[in-house]
Write a sequence for this structure.
């Protein structure tokens, strides 16, 4: 394999006697612009372009041994280009004075040399949550041919050990962002990658790393997670991976764990789906750097099925013959046409309609048909959500609560597709419960009207950007599913969401709704996401937290769920 060498250009840039101490000059070395600075320590040369946004350092200020870029006050040491104020260094160049001539030598780094510089630089940017530097380093890495999966993985590997109580939204969002890279070309791929890394950085900045225990394959993974033994679950997993346990087996362990309990209001199953989709993209050999922290999140997850409002549904599920459900013929092998009726039951029932869902599965829908109805029912629920409640800080309910119904349904379908079994049949019933639970506001306040008929013509991104909700829904309803899905996935990566948690949900919803629209051959999921994207949203939750705090401290009562 040939070793790449650095192209070197050397040029005389000025006479030493013509540049006094405290002065700077801009010069060209070949096609490269440099700033030459004379200080008490000698003559120095740096790239003229400030690494922040490219403004010329020669237009800045030289004081002592520091050059200040006056556009944003970044300060660089002239001897080596290191940043005293700012996110990253500027490149310095070798200078030699010969017979009153100042010679500057510019060596263009090779790709190998750039990689050696850029990986630590990107790591520092993620540690510090410097989003500009994250984006710049991402673009530089792409420019020298680094694969997007390797860039995203670099961030996840650094940050996963520092995620509070295991990986969460930042990992799930990264998986969907990485899957969206193919929607972009060339350096434009920076956007989804930078989105992924910014979420990772924001969620883990300043956190201590969890030190994993040594692997121990003698520990039972399921028992350790059930008993909330974090170290035991991680040791079991690492021991199994070290022994070469295959991805299908390990995936089945995680699916069994999230089907034992309805974990973290549905997030448990979603995180498992996204972690394994991510490993499909970056390679199974990286599993030991991610799955221990997924196991951690499941151990710490809330067992929602133990909470009072879910007990009745759980009691009903425990009476179900899950093996019969799993063995039932799929809708594709029957003449079942009860999807619309089941959707209506899911939307109108006063109790979680577990029996009706089981009867539908056994009557010809199959588990996949049940999930179709759940997905479309939740989409309808999103379309008729009364958005007046969204901006009421006293409301404990919002867009994100309903969106979990759709993304969880997708996760249950993913699990069923990979492992059709009694466990994943139970996940489908959990999805039905969550669909029912997304209607708790409707059951208190009544059902709001669906969006009015907007114009089906026009640009979907423009309708979303300018809050034309009815137009956005109409365009999504009449557009081709693949194209609408593509546009929504790209629109989710814009800066329309001001907080990471909302951005992560938009990305997750756009991905899940496109996948569900393709699976069900219905535009309803895309219409729901278009409405969510175009509607006013609660972006921060400080006011609501303050209201809850005042109520709790003043009265001792919990919020109304």
């Amino acid at each position: 394999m040939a070793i790449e060498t650095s192209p070197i250009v050397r040029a005389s840039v000025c006479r030493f006697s013509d540049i006094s101490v405290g002065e700077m000059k801009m010069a060209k070395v070949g096609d490269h612009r440099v700033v030459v600075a004379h200080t008490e320590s000698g003559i120095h040369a740096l790239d003229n372009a400030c690494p922040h946004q490219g403004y010329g350092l020669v237009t800045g200020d030289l004081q002592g041994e520091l050059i200040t870029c006056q556009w944003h006050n970044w300060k660089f040491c002239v001897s080596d280009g290191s940043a005293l104020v700012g996110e990253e260094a500027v490149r310095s160049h070798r200078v030699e004075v010969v017979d009153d001539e100042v010679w500057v030598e510019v060596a263009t780094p090779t790709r190998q040399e750039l990689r050696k510089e850029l990986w630590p630089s990107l790591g520092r940017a993620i540690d510090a949550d410097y989003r500009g530097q994250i984006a710049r380093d991402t673009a530089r890495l792409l420019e020298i041919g680094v694969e997007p999966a390797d860039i995203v993985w670099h961030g996840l590997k650094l940050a996963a050990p520092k995620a509070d109580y295991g990986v969460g939204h930042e990992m799930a969002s990264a998986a969907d962002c990485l899957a969206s890279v193919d929607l972009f070309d060339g350096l434009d791929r920076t956007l989804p990658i930078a989105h992924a890394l910014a979420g990772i950085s924001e969620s883990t900045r300043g956190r201590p790393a969890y030190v994993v225990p040594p692997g121990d394959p003698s520990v039972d993974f399921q028992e350790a997670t059930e008993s909330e033994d974090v170290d035991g679950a991680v040791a079991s997993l690492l021991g199994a991976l070290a022994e070469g346990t295959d991805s299908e087996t390990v995936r089945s362990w995680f699916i069994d764990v999230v089907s034992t309990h309805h974990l973290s209001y549905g997030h448990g199953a979603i995180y498992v789906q996204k972690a394994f989709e991510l490993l499909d993209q970056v390679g199974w050999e990286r599993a030991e750097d991610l799955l221990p922290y997924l196991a951690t999140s499941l151990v710490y997850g809330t067992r929602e099925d133990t909470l009072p409002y879910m007990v009745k549904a759980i009691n009903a599920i425990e009476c179900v013959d899950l093996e019969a459900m799993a063995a039932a013929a799929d809708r594709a092998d029957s003449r079942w046409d009860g999807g619309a009726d089941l959707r209506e039951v899911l939307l109108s029932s006063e109790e979680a309609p577990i029996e009706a869902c089981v009867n539908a599965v056994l009557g010809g829908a199959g588990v996949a048909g049940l999930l179709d109805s759940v997905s479309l029912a939740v989409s309808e629920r999103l379309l008729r959500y009364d958005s007046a409640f969204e901006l009421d800080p006293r409301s404990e309910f919002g867009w994100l609560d309903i969106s979990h119904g759709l993304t969880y349904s997708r996760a249950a379908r993913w699990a069923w597709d990979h492992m059709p079994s009694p466990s994943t049949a139970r996940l489908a019933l959990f999805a039905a419960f969550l669909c029912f639970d997304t209607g708790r506001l409707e059951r208190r306040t009544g059902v709001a009207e669906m969006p009015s008929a907007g114009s089906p013509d026009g640009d979907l991104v423009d309708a979303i950007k300018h809050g034309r909700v009815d137009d956005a829904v109409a365009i999504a309803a009449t557009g081709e599913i693949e194209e609408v899905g593509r546009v929504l996935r790209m629109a989710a990566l814009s800066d329309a969401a001001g907080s990471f948690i909302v951005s992560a949900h938009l990305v997750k919803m756009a991905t899940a709704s496109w996948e569900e629209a393709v699976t069900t051959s219905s535009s309803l999921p895309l219409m729901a996401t278009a409405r969510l994207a175009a509607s006013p949203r609660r972006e921060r939750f400080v006011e609501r937290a303050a209201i809850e705090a005042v109520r709790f401290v003043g009265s001792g009562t919990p919020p109304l769920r």
In short: Residues 354-383 form the longest helix (30 residues).
